[in-house]
Amino acid sequence: MVLSSYFDGANAPDGSCISLAAVCGTVDQWLALESDWTDMRAKHNNVPYIHTTDAVSLRKVFSETKGWSTTSVDDLLEDCVRVIKKHAAAPSLISGEMRPGLRIFTLTIALEDYRKAYERNPRLPNTATDVCASESLSFCFKWGRKIGAQFYDLAFDRGEPYYGHICNRWTNRTARKDIPFLRKVKRMSRVVMSSSAPLQVADMFAWCISHNDNITKRLWHRSLNDLAAWDSPYLDSKFLSDPYPKALERYAAWKLPTRRAT
After folding, report:
1. pLDDT (tens digit, 9 = 90+) per residue, 13-39?
2. 190 has which bridge partners?
3. What is the pTM of this model?
4. Looking at residue 133, which CATH number applies to its domain?
5. Residue 30: CA atoms inside 13 Å, Cβ hemisphere, count?
6. Among candidate residues 40, 34, 28, 35, the one with its CA nearest the CA of residue 1
7. Closest Cα partner for 52 from 212, 258, 182, 202?
8. Is 190 helix (H, G, I), strand (E, B) or coil?
């Protein structure tokens, strides 16, 4: 069994936080979603793809000159939520267990919290995006272990830094020795969002979590937040300031390339 995970990042509108969404599923689960995603797009003017920022901003393929309005965009995105809910994992009757389906995870870091944590402990990675990427990958491995995945495919939105952080680990001999699950990653790729329904799903969750301070949430935004299929931890200053010492020692031993600070 291969677990395919798609990653997409977003920034809070005021630039104070970064968030990374990861959506994990098996081949069969993704094929089922893609079929319904295609049918859903056909119902809404055959829109070629879903991009949340463009949709809520009425730009590009969602412009008013192409017949879109706030109401029609909201109807489209509400249908997107319905498709996601149909295919997402859901809590079972057994406490702590989930019924089969797509598993969703978002992780958020306030950049000011990270800056302060890094000043106190410069052994931390020099970018918050690095921590977002590595913690999100750990979630995918944990879910894969739970469902019995033998291998992993990882796909990242093109043009974001998260791919580089994980690729550095994947190609590092010492990191692969320390984290055996890295040896089970068979493919890493950068994906064009407009050509990937799974990445469009991840994009919706990344947008959703990064805009949750907006008290005027639209109905579809509230509906997405209400889904029981996803976890959305926030790494606060306490967590960032008190990492496991052995984890920092291991990270230092990998001697990964230094990336531009966020």
Report:
1. 999 999 999 999 999 999 999 999 999
2. 156
3. 0.95
4. 3.30.420
5. 19
6. 28
7. 202
8. strand
